Every structure is written in structure tokens, then in C-alpha cells.
Amino acid sequence: MIARDVRGTARACRLVDDRSGDYVAMMKDLFPHTGRAWTIGVTGNPGAGKSTLTDRLIALFRKRGQRVAVVAIDPTSPFSGGAILGDRIRMQAHFSDPEVFIRSLATRGALGGLSRSAVDVIRVLDAWGADVILVETVGVGQDELEITRTADTTLVVMAPGLGDDVQAIKAGLLECADVFAVNKADREGADATVRDLELMIALGGEITSAGAHSRGHAAGTLDLAKQQVRHGEGRWVPPVMRTVSTRNEGLEGLVAKLEEHRTWLTSTEAGGARRFERLRESMRTQLRESLIESALGSIGGELEEMAHAVARRETDPYTAAEQMVAHFKGR
Amino acid sequence: MIARDVRGTARACRLVDDRSGDYVAMMKDLFPHTGRAWTIGVTGNPGAGKSTLTDRLIALFRKRGQRVAVVAIDPTSPFSGGAILGDRIRMQAHFSDPEVFIRSLATRGALGGLSRSAVDVIRVLDAWGADVILVETVGVGQDELEITRTADTTLVVMAPGLGDDVQAIKAGLLECADVFAVNKADREGADATVRDLELMIALGGEITSAGAHSRGHAAGTLDLAKQQVRHGEGRWVPPVMRTVSTRNEGLEGLVAKLEEHRTWLTSTEAGGARRFERLRESMRTQLRESLIESALGSIGGELEEMAHAVARRETDPYTAAEQMVAHFKGR
């Protein structure tokens, strides 16, 4: 993989999917070869045109001679195979380019762990030598937000006329957005969407804090943290860009803004703090997943017994969880 | 709360949000008062009309004299406050009904835990005396799927003309769906959506196994498990119902199917097995969250140090996670 072999890299990705064999040993080995790639999260509701935009971004980065990897987590993305035939044919150009590596991640089973798999696959592609890694997710859902938070730069794609979009952004995406693209900008309503976004960004913390208040404490705390970052030295204010990706309009300008954000990340103190925050975030996710894997390995049978005891109403799930944590620590 | 006091119940929900005070003690106390409510997950992509349908279901259950609770996790739902004014006004009737309790859950912060909060809030509303608890989520995202899997009955709402829907369903929702509603059934394309769904259900595991194969191993295993359940004794085949919720059409029939599923759950062996599976699922989630909370409590400072060490490239995140798990067990 480090020799930039595509088949070896695909095999490494499968090891991550399965978490089998000596997958952890492999990840340890390849970690020193990571840290070079620039990860761009591409997120937004279905219908905003993320996939076409991603397709255009691949082409632009390829034109500059860069290696591009795509990790598709959006189940409706043609990159994930969840598309009509037309889309697949359109993507074929990239599928046959040896300098483009496309990988889709399934929604995970009972154990969760999608975000951990995403982080691992991104590291594999980083070690493969990707200059840019585009991570496409649907902009809703806890796990998707977690993945978005591990990207270096997050691009939120919106489209006029989807109505709910700006509202949905308020509910969680705003704090992750580094650049907004109002795609399908030739459609009616594009001006209003741009205006709404710019207003929301200008008012910053205040709007979302008020919203968060009615939505519970945790979100409020996050918004507060974000406000502190925003109002600190060298803060980054997300620009709002217009694109029509089907007609290749506005894409050069969008890439320029994405690159500006990258420069901010690597050359300012606030950018450095943000990169560290992202790393800590990914390590917290990893710790959580390692804990549950380790616990299921040593007390998996007890979970089954405890579930039966709760079903018989002999105990409650809270006491059961406490006991299992205590037993896990005692092993 | 057990005295059915609305303000006390709201306070209990806030305790769950904050996970502060003696929230765990409260949950232990109220657990014996739970187990009576019927939880219906209402899920599907934005634009399918989940919120209006939920609104109509509330009205129907109220007509039968039942207490109804709504837990809104969909950030675009008017129940979550993320709606245009018109929607809010439309909902007012239910907001002022003392036998209807509406609670929205924010997307959680860094720690994840949305699904655990959902399970806890559902238990609080169960103890409050809800006969029916409607849990509205967006049908994408790992956490949303996890929540869906804790519901007794899962209603997947689709609409013709959204295009991606049937594809998105394949990617994860099919295994959770107990009843499908093709809403906005007066629109063009409704017949095709119904036909696609019925075909997919009839072909069952085969289609999704093939799909899952290209999407990775974990999903394939899940589909296999589902297939085994489906082909067992007394299996439940999800019916596909047509509704036009804005015109109140097809809703009585939909409720009848939901109730049929409830009867299946409580009166057949396969239904009992399914209920147990759901309980075990919620306990696994709880164990995971309890583990990370307990770990951050005892080794939270170490996480910070380890992140710095990884940032300086003195260690890798995998070795760091192993060390942290070992240290946690040693405390």
C-alpha cells in the first residue's frame, strides 16, 4: 500500500471493514506514513447535488496532478453504488483512473462504529499517498456529524428550494461548516438561500444559541465553544459560494476557498488549535469503540444474561450496565 | 411523573438531557413503572411527510382516548421546532392537549449518546403513562438506525418522486421496517414506488444481500440474520400502505396495520424473540455509553495527554487506545 499499490490498498480497506486479521497491527504500522493528506468532508441533505459536485472536485484536483481518494458514506451517493445507471456511467471516468481511489462505507451493524471505520479508511488512503481525500456524507445523523468533525475542511452543500435546509443546518451542521456551497445556483430561490446563510453566519452564535436553548443543554455548550473559537484571534468565517456543478460553474472559486481554509489550518494558531481539537475528537471516538469491543470480548455472555434478567424484570438496565462496567474492570 | 404530572415529566426529561443530578438513580426508580407503552418509530427521508403523518396519527390515537407522546429527533421536524410558521400553527392543537406530551431531542455533542438519551426519554414518557410513543427520526445515519431498532414497531414513510428513496431504504432501513407508508399517494409515481417496495420485500434477503456484498461485510451479516428471522416460523412481512396525510386518506388502514404488528409482537414466538433482540440492542448501547462515561471520568486527563503525544507523533492512536483501555481497567 505504501508502495502505492491499488490492490494492496483495497485489501487494507477490506481488513478495516472486517476488523479481522491483524488489522490493528496494520493500522499501527501505517500510522507513521499518514498525516500528509488533506481531508475534505462534503456534506448536505440528499438532493443538494453533493455527488455531482464531488465528481467535479475530483476532476479539478486531478487536473492539478493530485491523487484523489473518495470515501462515500452517503447511502444515496452514486459513489456508494446507490445510484441510477446514468450516474454510474458518468462516474466511470474516475473509476478507471489509477490516481483516483473510491471506497464506500456501509452503514454499520448493531455495534455502531461507522465513524471509527471512516477514520481508519481515511488513514489507509492517506498512507496510499492521497493528496486530497473527499469524504461524502449525508448531513444528518450523529455518526455523520462525528465523521464531519474529523475532516480538515468541511464543505456543506445546499440547494435552493429544498426548504428545510437552512433549518437543518441550524440543528447541527453550522458548527462544522468551513465553506458553504449553494449549488444549483441557477435555480429560483438561490439568492434567498445565500442571504439566509450569510445572515446566519453573521449573527453567528446568537441565533444558534437561542435555537439550542430549546433543544437542550448539550447543543448549547457546543455552540458556546464554537462562539469562543469564532471570536478568538484569527477566526475563520465560513464563506458562501455559488455553484452550478452540472454546468461546471463556480467550481474554481470554490476550490480556491477550500484551499484558503487549508492555509488557515496550517499557518495560524487558531487553525492549529482546531486541528488538535479534531484529533482529540477522533481519539475519543476510538477510545469508545475500543472499550465496547474489549468489553464484548470479555463480558459478551454477561450482556446476554443481563438482557434476560431485565426482560424478566429482575433488574433494571441502569443497574445492569453499572454491574457490567464493574465486572469488565475486574477482568 | 408517575402521578402523571406534565411539569414533573418535563423536569425528568431535562435531567436526562443534562445527565446531571441523580439522573441514574431516577432512571432506576422509574424503570419498574415502564413497559406498558407501545413505541412506534416513524422514519424516512426529509420531504416524505413524516411530520404531517405523525400529526394525523396523534389525532387518531387521541380519538381512541389514548395518551400520546412524541419524541422528535428529526431536526427538520416541526415537532423539533425546526419548521416554518405554518407547521407550528398546525401543531398547536396537540401542544395544548394535556394528554399529548411532545419532546424534541437535540443532536448530541462530541460524546455521541443521542440513542441513549432517546431510550431514556422514551422510558420517562412510558412511566408518565403514555399509551403510544411516536419517535420521529430522519431515516439516515447510524444513530437514527440505532434508535429505530429500539422501537417496538417501525413505520417507514416514503413519497413518490423523491427518487433516491427506495435505494436509500436498501442501504439500511429495510431490515428495520415493519410497515411502509407510501405517503402523498395521490402524486404521480406512487404506483411505481409501491411496486418497487413490494418487489423488494418479496425478494427479501436476496436483493439486499447482493447490495450488501458490494457495501461491505457487516451489512451482509445483518441481512443474513434478518433473512433467518424472516424465513422462520410466524415471520412478519411488512405491508405497504398508501396514505395522503394532508387529506386524511388511508390513515385508519395504516393504524390497523400498525396494531396488527403490535399483536404479532406480543402474541407470537417470533414476535417475542424480536422484542428480546430490541432489548438486548438497547442494553448494548447503554453499556457502550456507560463505558465511555466511566472512562472519561477516570482517565479523561490521559486522553488529552495521549492526543498531544499523537499530535507530536510519539505514538499512534491505536496503541494509545489500547493503553487507555488497560489503564481504565487498572483503576
Number of strands of chain A: 7
Query: Oligomeric status of the shown chains?
Result: homodimer
Could you tell me the mean pLDDT of chain A?
80
The number of helical elements of chain A comes to 13
Integer tally of domains of chain A: 2
Q: Give the radius of gyration of chain A.
A: 21 Å
For the terminal residues of chain A, how far apart are their CA atoms?
37 Å
Order of helices and strands of chain A: HHEHEHEHEHEHEHHHEHHH
Strand order within the widest sheet of chain A?
3-2-4-1-5-6-7
List segments of chain A where confidence is low: pLDDT < 50 over at least 5 consecutive residues: 82-89, 108-112, 205-232
Q: In the CATH classification, which architecture of the largest domain in chain A applies?
A: 3-Layer(aba) Sandwich
What is the fold-level CATH name, i.e. the topology of the largest domain in chain A? Rossmann fold
Shape of chain A: globular
